[in-house]
Amino acid sequence: MVTxxxxxxxxxxxxxxxxxxxxxxxxxxxxxxxxxFLRKPVVMxxxxxxxxxxxxxxxxxxxxLRPEQCSLGTRQLAAHRGAVRIGDTLAIAARRVGGEGPRxxxxxxxxxxxxxxxxxxxxxxxxxxxxxxxxxFESEKTRPRKEAxxxxxxxxxxxxx
Length: 161
What we know:
The chain is of the alpha+beta class. Helices cover 16% and strands 34% of the residues. Strands 1-3-4-5-2 form a five-stranded antiparallel beta sheet.
């Protein structure tokens, strides 16, 4: 496993942001993945909510990383609690709840903000990250795989006695 020393990263605890939902966040923009996405209402896609949730954590982590480091998502457990309209503004909060060294775990929640004081929970999740040295990671994990060896004759799993 390729990781970096990030003991100082545990100083980040909470991060907040606001996000204005754009037409490019619509579930219908995923139509290239399948025609069924065109049949959906014009609301924010679950995948986009996850993207925004990861972004706030990565932004918080960036404040503590060295220039040659980056954070990579390793686990996502999310609940999409309500539809988010295009044009809505989301109030996002991320709080670091665990992890040691290069690993961190975050609780993230988003509420829609209609400007009338009501903020409805629309998404929440637990997101995990690890910090890596980007050059080392790319050299070890993204190099082309060796050609697969010629298939071997299949051996029986049953032993003859």
